[in-house]
Amino acid sequence: MQAVGRRDPIFRAIEAMTALAEIFERRREVLARDAGITIEQWRVLEEISTEHFIPSMFARSRDSSAAAVSKILRQLLDSGLVSAAIGRADRRNRRYKLTAKGTRALGKLRASRQAAIEAIWTGFSRDELAAFSAFAIKLSDRIERYSRGKSARRAAAAR
Prior knowledge:
By secondary structure, this protein is mainly alpha-helical. Helix content is 70%, strand content 6%. Strand 1 and strand 2 form a beta hairpin. The radius of gyration is 20 Å and the shape is globular.
């Protein structure tokens, strides 16, 4: 296998993808900050809005700790974006719900995000978008397969 050099198309593609990921992350941070929240709080608000929010399951799905999710929930409660009620079926559980303020904040985020999508993405042709989507899916699949293979090899080596 040949080493990848700085002028190699693979290296340039990796650089471009890295820059794109960083731009997406910065853009999400700006959207969240403009709404007065963090990206993590935004994720929790989105999940609470589905009305199927279970903190422990959310923590697992995000590869996070229950304590980290609890901290975010406390911040959202303190800022008046969510409310909590004791569960009807199991009084040990809390049921979280967006407040009017939380609904407005999430609505502002979604509107800002939609405006950005329309301003940025609608200038591309269907063919460009389809090609990009197909490539992104293939790349994601390859990264996931590689990661699973590395994890399996590490587990086998640890035995």
